[in-house]
Amino acid sequence: MSNNSSSQPRFSAGADPAALEASLAPLLTSNGGRWALAAEGEALEREFKFKTFAKTWDFMTAVALQCKLKNHHPEWSNVFNTTFIRWTTHHPKGLSAKDVELAAICDSLAKDFGEVVVEQTQTQQQGAEQAQQLQQACGLSGLANRAAGSAGDCCVPKTAT
């Protein structure tokens, strides 16, 4: 995942930190969840893996429907049977209640669509760490940062012209 993570969440202005901490805690890898804080604590991110591209696409479609219903969207990418999702709020910047809620919804949807969860042995963990180092060296881990940076101000309220 991202190499600019933080151990402390940074919430959006106007958020209720106490309520969000309670909802966020079980999602985090440090508490047995699968989400990691990223972007200096202003984002949540994780990967989802499924047996086939079709299952992956079905999961992404279900997430997209939730995005429409909640009027919020992720930074995400997909390669074959793997989807990377990052939740963050751009305006006001930081983690919001929608980010935390949609991360939990993603976990539930992933379970419904048959996410492939592989328990990692120590050797697999070392291999994953080496793969992450390679991704960082090749610049792949910054893909979400670069894509978000070039996408424009998607969350800034539109002004009448």
TrEMBL record:
Q: Known EC number(s)? A: 4.2.1.96
Q: Which reaction does it catalyse?
A: (4aS,6R)-4a-hydroxy-L-erythro-5,6,7,8-tetrahydrobiopterin = (6R)-L-erythro-6,7-dihydrobiopterin + H2O
Could you list this entry's UniProt keywords, alphabetically sorted.
Lyase
Q: Does the keyword Lyase apply?
A: yes
Which EC class, in a word?
lyase
SUPFAM superfamilies per UniProt: PCD-like (SSF55248)
Sorted alphabetically, the Gene Ontology BP terms of this entry are: tetrahydrobiopterin biosynthetic process
Which residue ranges does UniProt annotate as crossing the membrane?
none
Highest taxon listed in the record's lineage: Eukaryota
Q: Which CDD domains match?
A: PCD_DCoH
What are the recorded GO MF terms, alphabetically? 4-alpha-hydroxytetrahydrobiopterin dehydratase activity
Similarity comment: Belongs to the pterin-4-alpha-carbinolamine dehydratase family.
**What is the name of the protein in this document?**
4a-hydroxytetrahydrobiopterin dehydratase
Organism name:
Achaetomium macrosporum
Organism lineage string: Eukaryota, Fungi, Dikarya, Ascomycota, Pezizomycotina
